[in-house]
Amino acid sequence: MKKGYFITVEGLDGSGKSTQMDLITRYLKERGRKVIVSLEPGGTSIADRIRDLLLDPQCSDMDVRTELFLYLASRAQHTSRLIIPALNRGMDVICSRYYDATIAYQGYARGLDRDFIKNANDFATYGLHPDLTIIIDIEPRQGISQAHTTKKKHNVKGKGDRMEQESLDFYRTVRKGYQAIASREKHRVKLVPFRKGAENLFHDIQKVLDEFFRNKEEPPL
Ligand SMILES: Nc1ncnc2c1ncn2[C@@H]1O[C@H](COP(=O)(O)OP(=O)(O)O)[C@@H](O)[C@H]1O
Ligand SMILES: [Mg+2]
């Protein structure tokens, strides 16, 4: 029986997901909850090896369907071995990117059949759905520039990973995809406009979290 909450954070690269995940973790821990933080693709040793393939710039010749199945393979491993067992132990899981990313990137931006992806997602996740999804909505140019800043901070050279080598138009379509998901699934998905300053942005995200917990039958642990 699933006891913890499953919260996913979505948005373009550089939108501030990692930064907000830290603040969301702090919020949950202050409420006495036990939290596991994870990310996709990856999250377990097998999934991390799939991640390496997906992000390797040397794999530039990857077919879009190969890409889709690798994301799904990573997700199946991550969900079955890490996420579901943690939720069953009563831990909350916060994950950077989950199945909405596949709809936005491989569905909207790569143009693969979205109904097929939805079914494949359900299969890969064993039917698990996030209780809450926060999408950070950022203008792609700004996202790219911030992702670049992260690289500089970590002294990473080169043109970025395979997914980061896409065009501005590609990211515009990903963004539209995320916006479409948010307008279709208003109950689960909350679109939060990017704001400069991590604490400013978190101010808006905290409102979403407060609202989420207000609507729970059981109060936070
Ligand atoms: N709200 C914000 N305002 C200004 N800069 C931010 C904000 N959030 C994150 N950053 C910076 O932008 C870069 C990308 O943030 P990060 O959290 O790594 O994004 P993501 O995980 O979505 O790629 C980092 O250098 C981070 O310090
Ligand atoms: Mg990140």
Structure characterization notes:
- It is a single chain.
- This protein is an alpha/beta fold and 221 residues long.
- The protein has a single domain (6-214), classed as 3-Layer(aba) Sandwich (Rossmann fold), CATH 3.40.50.
- It is built from eight helices and five strands, in the order βαβααβααβααβα.
- Strands 2-3-1-4-5 form a five-stranded parallel beta sheet, sandwiched between helices.
- The chain is globular, with a radius of gyration of 17 Å.
- It starts with 5 loop residues before the first strand and ends in a 7-residue tail after the last helix.
- 39% of the residues are buried.
- Adenosine-5'-diphosphate binds at residues 11, 13-19, 146-147, 149-150, 153, 195-198, 201.
- Magnesium ion (MG) binds at residues 17-18, 96.
List keywords for this structure.
binds adenosine-5'-diphosphate; 54% helix; alpha/beta; five-stranded parallel beta sheet; 221 residues; binds magnesium ion
Write the layout of secondary structure elements.
Elements: E1 6-11, H1 17-30, E2 35-39, H2 45-55, H3 64-88, E3 92-96, H4 99-109, H5 114-124, E4 132-137, H6 140-153, H7 168-184, E5 189-193, H8 198-214
Parallel strand pairs: 1-3, 1-4, 2-3, 4-5
The structure holds adenosine-5'-diphosphate and magnesium ion.
